[in-house]
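Here comes my example:
=====
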Amino acid sequence: MTDRARLLLYCIADARAALPHGARAEGLQRIEHGGLVALVSPLAESARVEEPTKADLLEYAHVIRSQHAVADVVPMRFGSVLSGEVAVRAHLDEQRDTYVRALTRVTGCVELGVRVLLSVSPPPLVPDLAVKPMSHSGAAYLESRRRHYSAENRLREQCEALEQSLLSKVAPLCREHRTEFPAPRPDSPALCSLYFLVPREQVLAFRTALASIPVENTDIALSGPWPPFNFVA
């Protein structure tokens, strides 16, 4: 491999981390520098990372999961490409403090995802208020915006209530969490996504605690464990 070869970057780990077992990526290589290691593979000149196939994405995810199964990693998003080994070492120099902080943050942890389909409650009925003279289209626009923000607020309240309900059971079992609040869609359930940074040894206890939470009028699903994509940004 020459320094001019394009390299696809999978993840960053401590230099003492083990190479993934059973990784399918061709030419997988470790580049160590400054106490860190970058896991990379060469890209063919014709490769287009802007338009990956499903197989490309599955292979990329497999390599990261294989490494994460044996070590703490900072996972990259598909499409992280550097121009060669010199560029990789320069990148590790430039971002060393960031990567060290990220590795410290996720040490010993995995990511578990909780996705919940919420049925958005209809808006409360309110009497029509007298509308001062204005065009019909203007009044309709204001009413549509009022309904939109009303639905948005109700949905956020539902998500926040769900978040607190989950945390009441699993907070002692996770290091951090984050929530993605969905935008309301007319006549459609909304997907509320929560991500938890969970110590590896607490995964079973987390699953058990989650199963004990009664959640009415929702469809809830747990996924993972995954590499901690949502906690290394």
In short: Residues 137 and 143 are 10 Å apart (CA to CA). Residues 7-106 form one domain. DSSP finds five helices and nine strands in the chain.
